[in-house]
Design a protein that fits this description.
By secondary structure, this protein is α/β, with parallel strands linked by helices. It has helices at 16-28, 46-50, 52-69, 78-93, 95-104, 121-129, 131-136, 172-179, 203-219, 230-238, 240-247, 258-265, 270-273, 283-288, 297-305, and strands spanning 2-5, 32-35, 73-74, 118-119, 146-149, 183-184, 224-227, 255-257. The longest helix has 18 residues, at 52-69.
Length: 306
């Protein structure tokens, strides 16, 4: 199965471990990720403040390229996923909308029709690959690992007619985590905002929102927080030392992408999953869940001789 892969800006910079682990996990299931050539930024949240048309035209250019590839778009970043999905639905809503966007694309040599689907890797893992196939590949069950799953405020609330999970109580990441053998603890803030979008202009509020999430995870006795969003990861992982200092509360909880967690259970080497990129060290977890080394034939023969 081939997909058009849209990594987006974050996965090529601050969240490179999300990109690394996504590619490794898809490869493990013979799912091909073909990167969209010469892709551009989806506009994130900044384009909306400048121009509604610009916020649609930016992802439309990427969608047009994906249509040439004739493959469903996979967008790991919830902001990218939301923007591309919103544009696809806008273009498909009427001929007038499509003509408006294609007018904006004049000069690029591209036209968008809105004919390719846009999906998040969570959706692919649960609803296309399926949990049974996921279970078949597990080499290192994550038994004994206690985690909370944190979805953030965007991934389950895209505009349009299709959503792959419940908007108020999503469970796709929970189901994956349970399939891997780990325990998912109750967590009331699983869809609360981490404050990431206002980190620059209102740091006080952003840090407080992130602290509330981290504190509840700590009170739940979680060993890790599992995420699927680069901005959430940045807020809870990179900002965690700042939050600890500000509130005088030692948290020390690793924040791990769900693709890293899957990769760990599949026995993929931790360096290929980008665990060394995390700010909060997760080595206690990765050390515990390593594939057992097979004894060489020479050692077996020596043991028999003795």
């Amino acid at each position: 199965m081939k997909y058009s892969y849209y990594p987006g800006c974050s996965l090529e910079a601050t969240s490179v471990e999300y990109d690394m682990s996504t590619r490794e996990v898809f490869k493990a299931f013979d799912l091909t990720l073909e990167e969209i050539p010469d892709w551009n930024c989806c506009g994130a949240s900044s384009a909306h403040s400048e121009s509604h048309l610009l916020s649609l035209a930016l992802p439309a250019r990427d969608l047009a390229k994906a249509e040439d590839m004739e493959a469903t778009v996979v967008a790991p970043c919830p902001s990218c996923y939301q923007n591309m999905k919103r544009t696809k639905e806008y273009v498909g809503k009427s001929i007038e909308n499509r003509e408006k966007i294609n007018k904006a694309l004049e000069g690029t040599g591209l036209k968008v029709e809105g004919k390719v689907a846009v999906k998040h890797p969570l959706d692919i893992m649960v609803n296309e690959l399926g949990l049974e196939k996921l279970a078949e590949k597990i080499k290192v069950p994550l038994e004994g690992l206690r985690v909370v799953t944190y979805y953030g405020c965007m991934i389950t609330r895209p505009e349009g007619s299709y959503t792959f999970d419940d908007m108020e109580n999503p469970v796709s990441m929970d189901r994956i985590t349970l399939t891997l053998g780990a325990s998912v603890l109750p967590f009331t803030r699983k869809t609360r905002c981490c404050g990431g979008p206002v980190m620059v202009n209102n740091e006080e509020t952003a840090l407080r929102l992130s602290y509330d999430i981290l504190r509840e995870a700590k009170e739940a006795d979680a060993q890790a927080i599992i995420v699927a969003c680069p901005l959430c990861h940045l807020s809870l992982d990179a900002k965690q030392p700042i939050i600890e200092k500000k509130y005088g509360d030692k948290i020390n909880i690793p924040v791990i992408y769900f693709t890293q967690l899957i990769g760990l259970a599949l026995g993929i080497p931790e360096e290929k999953l980008g665990f060394d990129k995390l700010i909060i060290d997760a080595s206690e977890i990765t050390a515990k869940y390593k594939p057992k080394k097979k004894k060489s034939k020479k050692k077996k023969a020596t043991a028999k001789a003795k």
